[in-house]
Amino acid sequence: MNVGLRRLGDEELPAFRESSEHGYIESIEKAGGMPREFAVEKARRDFEALWPDGKPLPDQLIYAVEADGERVGYLWLAERENQGRKVIWIYDVEIDEAHRGRGLGRQAMLLVEQEARVRGLGRVELNVFGGNEVARNLYRSLGYEESAVWMGKDLE
């Protein structure tokens, strides 16, 4: 299977944003344990900061993940500085549900590493919600290490 990345065209960006924002809201609410209203407001604020006027900032790299020429998911990256070091930051990696379990997420992550190297960057970083064990296990299997864990407990 030939897996690659293709920059999204302007006409594809609205569908990507809708899908990504919806997924972010769901993650904040379910995995983050936040009320729906908070999740919606946080996602709105975060997307407005990164997508002013409804378009992504110029430093945002938004790709279709393709397998044998068919779009099977999305990948959203940016060059960022973190702790004095330029890195590739993964905002979102999403393989469509119908295509999961075939190693496409792993292939997409390896393509991210390749993109970082092409840009002369020696580090890839991301944030993952604690309840997303499938993603966390994938990242660990690729050598990613946790640098912080946020924990909480509801009391009655």
In the residues, how many domains can be counted?
1
DSSP E strands, number: 5
CATH superfamily: Gcn5-related N-acetyltransferase (GNAT)
Q: What's the overall geometry?
A: globular
SSE series: EHHEEEHEH
Question: What is this structure, in a nutshell?
Answer:
The protein has four helices and five strands; from the N terminus they run βααβββαβα. It is an alpha+beta fold and 156 residues long.
Supply database-style keywords.
about 160 residues; alpha+beta; Aminopeptidase; 5-stranded mixed β-sheet; about 35% helix
Describe, in plain words, how this protein is organized in 3D.
This protein has 156 residues and is of the alpha+beta class. It has one domain (3-141): Gcn5-related N-acetyltransferase (GNAT) (Aminopeptidase, 3-Layer(aba) Sandwich). 37% of the residues lie in helices and 26% in strands. The chain has helices spanning 13-30, 36-50, 104-118, 133-141; strands at 3-7, 60-67, 70-82, 85-95, 124-126. The protein has a 5-stranded mixed β-sheet, sandwiched between helices. The longest helix is centred in the N-terminal third of the chain and has 18 residues, at 13-30. The model has no long low-confidence stretch (mean pLDDT 93).
Lay out the secondary structure:
Blueprint: E1 3-7, H1 13-30, H2 36-50, E2 60-67, E3 70-82, E4 85-95, H3 104-118, E5 124-126, H4 133-141
Helix pairs in contact: 1-2
